[in-house]
Amino acid sequence: MPLLQISEPGKSAAPHQHNLAAGIDLGTTNSLVASIRSGIAETFPDIEGHHLLPSIVHYSEMAITKVRDDEIIVGNAAKSFANQDPLNTIASVKRLLGRGLKDIKTLGTRLPYEFVENEGQGMPMIRTVAGLKSPVQVSADILKVLKKRAEKTLGGELTGVVITVPAYFDDAQRQATKDAATLADLNVLRLLNEPTAAAVAYGLDKGASGIHAIYDLGGGTFDISILRLHHGVFEVMATAGDSALGGDDIDRVIAQWIMQQAHIANDAEHHQIRELLDVARTAKETLSTQNTAPLNIKLDNGIQWQGELTHSQFHELIDPLIQKTISPCRRALRDARLTVADINEVVMVGGTTRMPRVREKVGDFFQRPPHIDIDPDKVVAIGAAIQADILAGNKPDDDMLLLDVIPLSLGIETMGGLVEKIIPRNTTIPVAKTQEFTTFKDGQTAMAIHVVQGEREIVLDCRSLARFELRGIPPMVAASARIRVTFQVDADGLLSVSATEETTGVHSEITVKPSYGLQDTDIERMLRDSLEHVQKDVATRTLREQQVEADRVINALRAALKADGHHLLKHHEFLEISAALDELLRVKEGNHVQAIKRAIEHLDEITQSYAQRRMDTAIHHAMTGHRIDEFTQEN
Amino acid sequence: MALTLTEKAAKHIQKSLTNRGKGIGLRLGVKTSGCSGMAYIMEFADEAGEHDQIFESQGVKILVDPKSLAYIDGTELDYVREGLNEGFKFSNPNVKDSCGCGESFNV
Q1: Most-buried pick from A24, A134, A340, B3 (CB within 10 A)?
Q2: CATH of the domain at A358
Q3: Are residues A505 and A598 in the same domain?
């Protein structure tokens, strides 16, 4: 007989009908699975009692010959292979998820894997003895272990899961996470931002209202989120962060320091570097409680070194990294239009926040001691489990509305290579926004829609997400076609864009697919650039706008002159207008905004009477052959 | 007529109720469904129904509607661990047979 759990009133499942749901924190360093049993949210340990599953996968030759998944070793058991067989032992794969080979190369020589470009898809593959493995496959292998653990613990099959992702994951990275879940045969109820999940865990347990900052420093990512809890509703006011900063980096700077001290060359073998990283991690953990950490290095190439890392030396090494988390905190506050004084509480998430130095520095910045009530390693998984329970329908009416935001603005390219932002950064999702665009030239029958992501004013400085074309626009005079462009972002942060020409209903749309490796740039850098380049961007935008306006005037005037210029204009008028037109053409190529503006104004002035005559002629044409009452009947 | 809890079961129910922050006790019952007739209901109780019978065992209130009581009278509720899985187990003297999976039963 199966074991039963206590349900909410009226929510008892019928026999053979299960609503088992779990929350999964798929982390860079460690992953966890949690669920609700008899009203209690908890993470599940493995048979040995470990809650954290190290996000490490070891592939052996056995994995080729045997079909069984358990020949793929995941977690602690895989960890022991990390030193002896680093090329086949994949760690921190989350950093590679949804990234292109070019992006991965910029992560530098830190990654001891052999990458192979996958023809066509652009998705990098890792060469292992068990064959080529994509980061999606490696992630799926981690998810499979968590799925099995949850199903054994709950005594039944999972109907759905909520998987958490860093708030800064872009579309490609979110899609890759979903792909991994599909590969692991999991039904994703929703992807949830990690800091939001942490807030869910705290919000439900405490029920407090106020404005809180969630500081999440994990193994490989940093996120800061400003959340408002109000009447049981979480609203994410702002998010910022760094998608490549975490405890791994702290280990790395310590390891590099050891290499300097012990005179170990930079080109040390993969497994030696890994051994040094282990020593570094142990030292870091020791220094949370002790004043000094002893270091004993004994490499297999005979190098031996003994030393110690003191508190002050340790702080000197890691303070710059901790400092790197403070500027995103400032930015998030600014985005939320808040000051430090507005923050009621600070919540710590992620194993790295166990370091006293991190707590101290964060406390200094926010001017209050941070909260550490819930285990910072488990809090995200617990929040995800609570959300999964609600989505699976196990909760009664007091369902919680959860608002999330998009991390970077989404927009389209307009004339002159400018970006028109359709959905600004930090808009709550799900969201749909529509904006009307028009044709630029007479008789234009197609329009290219270029979807971009970023904060800069110029297309080239933003990330290109997708391109598609709307064809079949009926030929019309410039600016008379009406094209509605709709941007829709679903609850998972995935974007679809559609364009419709109003009069004919011609329609075209695209769902933004993972553009692995396409101009991928670090979001952190994109945001920083947008701040640094504000003035230049505004100047460029003004210039481009004037140039586009000049083009419009030139096109319209040329069309008019061709149609009736010789007919309606006296010879000297024609010459004067032509000269002014040439002048505008000349200054338009330069970068003098005022000169272009003056030339447009001048041209406008001297064509006033010409425009008047054209109008009269048009009216004359229109009225010829009609009686005057035909025009007055209408009212 | 009686319904009893083992100490372990009572402890776990208390913990769940405290964690939930509200509720007066545990509602037990049966409903007709499944491949072998009936299935157990185990829910948090926020209020007592007009005809509910209320038992108390190990300091925990157990609420049962009179129709259900006939099928589960004498049941002892335990909390057990089987491998990774843990949960509540019914020892119901009225059960004649249960379906293969054990999720529903007959009296």
Answers
A1: A24
A2: 3.30.420.40
A3: no
A120 lies in the same domain as A78: yes
Residues A546, A512 share a domain: no
Answer yes or no: do A7 and B34 touch at CB < 8 A.
no
Q: How many residues does chain A have?
A: 635
Q: For residue A513, is pLDDT > 50?
A: no
Dump pLDDT digits (tens) for A375-415.
999 999 999 999 888 888 777 645 554 556 676 788 999 88
Q: Which domain holds residue A562?
A: 535-623
**Interchain CB contact of A50 with B (< 8 Å):** no
Q: How far apart are CA A334 and CA A513, in angstroms?
A: 32
Count the domains in chain A: 3
Write the burial class of residue B65 (CB in 10 Å: 0-12 exposed, 13-18 middle, 19+ buried): middle
**Chain segment A133-162, per-residue pLDDT in tens:** 899 999 999 999 999 999 999 988 898 999
pTM confidence score: 0.63
pLDDT in tens, B47-59: 888 889 999 999 9
Distances (CA, A) of A423 to A193, A208, A315, A439: 19, 31, 41, 21
Of B43, B46, B102, the CB nearest to A2: B102
Q: What angle do CA A253, A255, A259 make, to 5 degrees?
A: 115
Co-location of A33 and A121 in the same domain: yes
Q: Are residues A468 and A551 in the same domain?
A: no
Q: If you average pLDDT over residues A94-109, what whole number do you get?
A: 71
Contact A39 B31 (CB under 8 A): no
Residue A321: predicted pLDDT = 95
User: Count of CB atoms within 10 A of residue B83's CB?
Assistant: 9
Q: Please report residues of A whose CB lies closer than 8 A to that of B15.
A: 40
- Which of B12, B34, B82 is the closest to A14 by Cβ? B34
Do the domain assignments include residue A257? Answer: no
A519 pLDDT band (50/70/90 cuts)? very low
* β pairing state of A73-74 and A21-25: unpaired
Q: Do residues A388 and A420 both lie within one domain?
A: no
Residue A264 in domain: no
Question: Is A395 an active-site residue?
Answer: no
Q: Are A1 and B102 inside 8 Å of each other by CB?
A: yes
Chain A CA closest to residue B89: A3
